[in-house]
Amino acid sequence: MATSAVPKVHKNYINGEWVEARGGRALEDRNPANRAELIGIFPASTQDDVNDAVDAAKAAFRKWRLVPAPKRAEILYRAAETLVKRKEDLARDMTREMGKPLSETRGDVQEAIDMTYYMAGEGRRLSGQTVPSELPNKFAMSVREPLGVVGMITPWNFPMAIPSWKMMPALVCGNTVVIKPATDTPLSTYNLVQILIEAGLPAGVVNIVNGRGPDTGMPLVTHAGVAAVSFTGSTETGHLVNQGCATSFKPCHLEMGGKNIIIVMDDANLELAVEGAVWGGFGTSGQRCTAASRVAVHKKVYKEFLDRFADRVKALKVGDGLDPETEMGPLINQTQLETVMKYVEIGKAEGAKLVTGGHRAESGGLARGWYHEPTIFADVTPKMRIAQEEIFGPVVALIPFASFDEALEIADDVAYGLSASIYTRNVNQAYRAMRDLETGIVYVNAPTIGAEIQLPFGGTKSTGNGHREAGTAAIDFYSEWKTLYIDYSDRLQRAQIDTADLS
Ligand code: NAD
To answer: In whole angstroms, what is the distance from residue 207 CA to residue 17 CA?
Structure first.
């Protein structure tokens, strides 16, 4: 079993040891498909625990920064290999604590595998610049330096992939880490860290403090020993994290909410677009930052699309993610379920047409978990709250439009800017959409979800603050430039003042 090396009553991992939270309090991790099933007990940490973890990470940084990057990378390679071997057990653990079907949790683990191998490869690159100097007998270059201790705060919807997006680039660059996982899904982060430990990560290089956002997350954000913070979660929490970093000019990477759109043009392959909208809207029960919670459809094909889409969605098999037949699992917790139910009421009150779904799913034993029916609202207008606000659940708003320009206007008229997609066979429209959609990610003839780890991931407007996860863009956040000039002329040479002798 993936968890065999970690006890059921879990502790914090600080300075290479599993230790109790100083306050002795704990939090439960329960299966959202069956609330009676307790996955584990995890510490409820406070400022004292964060202090211990940051002290350990600071001490470890002194040595870790000097370990050659290719050697740091070898640990990542070993970890990636163990992830491959344990993929199935890790996926099962994740489905139990998070609810999404096994096919999806296997994908989540695979993303961690991909990221770990990719960042291990960066250990032999971490490229800087070498440029000619304007003066003779002088050498000019730039190198990447680690930042120090990086504090990481992660959400529950990708409980292994997202910690890997943050930890692997940070580690290969030579930083040390204190990570606070989401309280709903700590086990998957524990499993990932356990594998890094087995791969030979020295004590103190990665530390986990589990606990609630305000009690554990905020002390980490504001700790003077933390050099930078990487956060993924809601825009609301992102504001707080941003403020916590601002007073000390702490670099802060924020990945936040989305209100993503699929645009279906009248020339689209409708069958493909329907498949994309089902997967984009209801994959992970709509609990993805990139979920296609809006589908805008050209009026000429609106009726046909709606009928086909509704047929597919009504047939979705909702259930426990461990059942191979299941296509959509539960929501993560009661709060999330209540939020979805609240938005269904808002949609109805706004005058949108409820096509299917709209209730908590309780029949056939589903009342044991936090299930909601896959739900479609039709005839949604762009300014309705269900078309503007992130619901983070299995609710899709269908919006009719009459022209390509109108579709782009609808797409861009939201506070968020993570992902957008267009289904069309018209190359001119596809290129215009790629240019004009105000999102960090654009797909053509594919849904809004499905990013690959070798390219930047992140969004504009209220989704992000200019940084990106993944690809070499991640390296840019987890390292700082140092510029080096080496003068071997044996005389004072003044840049911009002295000129090279051309004779
Ligand atoms: P959340 O903001 O409630 O929690 C995220 C993390 O922040 C958790 O670890 C939580 O404990 C912590 N936290 C909460 N309050 C805090 C505080 N006051 N100080 C410090 N930390 C605090 O988000 P969530 O419900 O876990 O995740 C869902 C949200 O995450 C959605 O909005 C989704 O769009 C977003 N998300 C974004 C991306 C992305 O890459 N853009 C990816 C996944 C999820």
So the answer is: 9
CA distance 211 to 49: 10
- 237 C-alpha to ligand 1 centroid (Å): 6
Here the tokens at position 489 are 């002329």
Question: Which fold does the domain 261-444 belong to in CATH?
Answer: Aldehyde Dehydrogenase; Chain A, domain 2 (3.40.309)
pLDDT in tens, 305-322: 999 999 999 999 999 999
| Packing angle, helices 427-436 and 404-412, rounded to 10 | 20
Q: How many CA atoms lie within 13 A of 327 on its CB side?
A: 14
Catalytic residue among 97, 255, 390, 469: 255
214 lines ligand 1 (CB under 6 A): yes
CA of 451 to the centre of ligand 1 (A): 19
Sequence ranges of the chain with CATH classification 3.40.309.10: 261-444
For ligand 1, atom 40, the nearest C-alpha belongs to 255
245 is a catalytic site residue: no
> How many angstroms is it from 255 CA to the middle of ligand 1?
9
Q: Where are the beta strands (DSSP E) in 11-159?
A: 12-14, 17-19, 26-31, 34-43, 130-132, 138-146, 149-153
- Among protein residues, the one with the nearest Cα to ligand 1's atom 15 is 213
Does the beta carbon of 217 sit less than 6 angstroms from any atom of ligand 1?
yes
Selection from 378, 394, 379, 270 nearest residue 332 by Cα: 394
Distance between CA atoms of residues 473 and 485, nearest Å: 25
**What's the fold here for domain 46-256?**
Aldehyde Dehydrogenase; Chain A, domain 1 (3.40.605)
pLDDT tens sequence across 323-377: 999 999 999 999 999 999 999 999 999 999 999 999 999 998 899 999 999 999 9
**Which residue in the list 173, 245, 252, 289 is annotated as catalytic?**
289
